[in-house]
């Protein structure tokens, strides 16, 4: 296979990671909402943890984006 | 699509252009558009704080805004570090406000003035890495200052079984050393990705309008433009969330250094 084509295919495959991270972020907020609706009084205290979970899930998606960018522009 | 309408380069917005070239001892220390936007951010931040620090007994609107932000950061630090976190509020506040202002400055529509385009300071790894090193260095200095070599007990959590003592410190060490990278990368990539996405959509709108076929503007440009409005709002949200996450993680790391988990 042509090296240039392989790079672009790899960058496209990296987008799968971004999509999976979207699922992860959705899971974080969905689970938070599920818990928050059961006990709204305790929800405000957990906002920090919500965003830590969000940051951790999001970072992995962003890493997939970095992989794609490296394949297109650097490698 | 019309081939002659010009290819839109979404990466051009991140180009650093020297405004006042300067060379000292073989190092390029020019005043660039990045420096200019840092100065603008600093000016905006200074103006914002100056307007709200009048210490009126009955605060006006502006003072309420400033007190709201300081109270927010104060709350965040004291809830994650505890009573000893008071000392670190200025650091976390500066990081938070600088990142927030820099993110928002990159979203400002300066582009309506011909020849001017906004530059997002935080879309460069060099800038975010310095911010992350600032946060990580504070953790190291505070940790070793307060606890000396006892700080290394951070890598052995309470209740580690003896037969895992060879593995857990290794994992903890890695998760500790990866912190500055994750802090810097998260901010940098979130800003870069958002701006690339917006420029790509803007390219759809403009290339669609320039297309020869009459149906293209209706089918491509208008939906892209509507999507772009939504993405812009999302991007403003991401600006705020990234600044918040950076400040929150910094205060959590400081908590590790102060209290040793």
Automatic annotation (TrEMBL), chain A:
Keywords: ATP synthesis, Cell membrane, CF(0), Hydrogen ion transport, Ion transport, Lipid-binding, Membrane, Transmembrane, Transmembrane helix, Transport. The chain crosses the membrane at residues 6-29, 50-74. It is a multi-pass membrane protein. Residues 9-71 form the V-ATPase proteolipid subunit C-like domain. One of its GO terms (molecular function) is lipid binding. GO terms for cellular component: plasma membrane; proton-transporting ATP synthase complex; proton-transporting two-sector ATPase complex, proton-transporting domain. The keyword Ion transport applies. It is found in: Cell membrane; Membrane. Its main location: membrane. The keyword Cytoplasm does not apply. The record marks 58 as: Reversibly protonated during proton transport. SUPFAM superfamilies: F1F0 ATP synthase subunit C (SSF81333). Pfam families: ATP-synt_C. HAMAP family: ATP_synth_c_bact. Key component of the F(0) channel; it plays a direct role in translocation across the membrane. A homomeric c-ring of between 10-14 subunits forms the central stalk rotor element with the F(1) delta and epsilon subunits. F(1)F(0) ATP synthase produces ATP from ADP in the presence of a proton or sodium gradient. F-type ATPases consist of two structural domains, F(1) containing the extramembraneous catalytic core and F(0) containing the membrane proton channel, linked together by a central stalk and a peripheral stalk. During catalysis, ATP synthesis in the catalytic domain of F(1) is coupled via a rotary mechanism of the central stalk subunits to proton translocation. Belongs to the ATPase C chain family. This is ATP synthase subunit c. It comes from Sphingorhabdus contaminans. The lineage of its organism: Bacteria, Pseudomonadati, Pseudomonadota, Alphaproteobacteria, Sphingomonadales.
From TrEMBL, chain B:
The chain crosses the membrane at residues 35-52, 88-113, 125-145, 160-178, 185-206. It is a multi-pass membrane protein. Keywords: ATP synthesis, Cell membrane, CF(0), Hydrogen ion transport, Ion transport, Membrane, Transmembrane, Transmembrane helix, Transport. Belongs to the ATPase A chain family. NCBIfam families: ATP_synt_6_or_A, PRK05815.2-4. The gene is atpB. It comes from the Bacteria. It is found in: Cell membrane; Membrane. The lineage of its organism: Bacteria, Pseudomonadati, Pseudomonadota, Alphaproteobacteria, Sphingomonadales. It comes from Sphingorhabdus lacus. This is ATP synthase subunit a.
